[in-house]
């Protein structure tokens, strides 16, 4: 591979990192988490969830609960004055169940009482008569109509969404095929396990409206859904959704906000509702389990010929982000490679297995695991190394996207692979055993790309505001929320780059519908890119506005925007604070409207921007116990310029551990519609001892004239880690990996089967 | 000193808990101050801290002693506040993050976590500081490997432990064993 410009690589773990602006508050124990808003006079909210995965509701009797002293509100669907359902692409989720329950924990009623003890007693007094229905548990059977239950999960049937894509001449492609690999891959239901469970406060504002304080991704939508539910004008609802104690997609769709709002509205008192971990496990969304059939061929020289993929994903009881997740799975199924022909299909089934929804890595990580196994297996059949096989088959930087759509030209995949191939870890041995033969080591490589933003037809529009506040702070006001990703630091550092001021002169104002415009959701790895675009668009008008305002005060001096104010050749002339004071109501304020950039001709649900990464993992398998340890992970990340070193590094390391744990330990089993773990003692997330040594090599190059700037760094580390670990495991065990996670039991079972001897 | 009745979260019949509550007054030294609360003897310390004293630095993450987000020091030893009931800590000394974060003795730990990228969403951070500061203040100070092993009771879902490990390496580097 040849490059016109050398790679610009930063090894972020070795740099001194700027301290994030909210670090001191977080280390000082009170950064203002919304679930910490404990005040006298609040009622405690509690939710009555379904004990059944699937049942008809025959009758709900709340009279005894209503009569209990200390109870201020008992609500069911009948108490909702406005719209009773919500959803994204499909509106199918009742705030409180009406005629049916569709998963264990599905909310049926809720109470607000003077204390938790009374609230729990009131819940116990609510009588719900159910007629249990056979649960729909197998997504394939659910779609084939062979499910045990005659009753579909929703009236219109169990197929929520289907997508497909065909391209090229399949019969010609098959005719030129010499090697083929066909297998069926299964991925687990993973839990977000944010440490702050869903919680917060809903309170009447004393003026006919309602204030909401719950961590989330999109307070503007929360406000709209809740106003519509209560039949209120939208401006009567005020939602604050930041900061958030972890989300990873799990708090993207609304969680308990509508229920808390309904309780507070009925009681006309502040209600605090904070789920326990088991309640959060029952109610929260999970990562979609997928069954992926893949058949891929190449010719005698190793050039890919065809790729056939069939995906069935389990979305559980309600749609939430399921259709978008499935579309992402389809779009990422070919990866960054070129083929003569593609035949891709994907179906999404409703079941009674909890709810699956948005999760960092979003639909793509499941198929990337399968695809990257296929690539290694084909390379071995051809007799090529994994890196040479990928280099041969990589689509050109100007080539159309995976579904034939127009994409922004980007050579990130080429650069990431090139950097990865040069790493000592990859140049060393790929498999070795300890002297006693007990421990097997494997090294695996992966190359992935992933989309940024919502893609064609998605809710991509985004508004922000840049304003000089009364105290002279330069405020970037935006509805996005701080989830831990260091959006606050990113805004400051990008602001300093674009506006000519000091980073500390900038005050990010986030996630509050009274203070920030509707920016859409902070999701799809898009926030950094949008902040970059907003500041790029606003930089010139902003500086003009400041200079114009200053010229009224200092008409004869040529000025420019400096760190803390307007400067002349002689130095600071007018601080931003003095300018703000003098300007009063006339202080500069610029509204920024960003629109989707997807080209006209692109198909619905395709993406225009992709970032790319390569990664190398080293694993160690204990053949006695079956325990897998991921020892090293080298990430070569081609995502354009680093907007915030600490944010970028943290996203890479954090996402990588989450992704690799999906390969080694995390699976929330669901038996007959019941989750088999309801807390962190039964569902084990990684500890410090499970974290490998990680290296992040950020490749900052972007093509000349690139319109995008930084690509999203929020999710791609999940996407790279899982296939890298799976490929390393396959190398160590000399067998393909088809089912995740590779728990000790599965490792031992695999070791007891014959070796495929096809892994390099 | 303030005394209030705290109803515990849980499914006890009201008569029983009211009777127990009237019979039990918890007295503690909390962050250097004597405090008391009239409560059921099985009220958890985490509930008392957050609901009664409005000290919200200790966080509920799992409430089964797994995540470490509610860590406090009981008689100068780190423990999870979700696992301690009022009757178990009668007359004892509790220090929370509200006090430890104000103490210059924890400054090296807070500073290292800030500089190394050990803080993201911040929800585990109180517990991390309690755990790491306690280890850092031990004599002799543990090695980095010992400290890493002992930090496994504090879960973080954001950082992948990259920044936390860098902070441990820096704070517990070889040669610092006192």
From TrEMBL, chain B:
Domain 2Fe-2S ferredoxin-type per the UniProt entry, residue ranges: 24-100
GO molecular function, a single term: oxidoreductase activity
Keywords, in A-Z order: 2Fe-2S, Iron, Iron-sulfur, Metal-binding, Oxidoreductase
Domain of life: Bacteria
Membrane-spanning ranges: none
Gene3D superfamilies linked to this entry: 3.10.20.30, [2Fe-2S]-binding domain (1.10.150.120)
Keyword ATP-binding: no
Keyword Iron-sulfur tagged: yes
PANTHER family reported for this sequence: OXIDOREDUCTASE WITH IRON-SULFUR SUBUNIT
Protein name: (2Fe-2S)-binding domain protein
Species of origin: Comamonas testosteroni (strain DSM 14576 / KF-1)
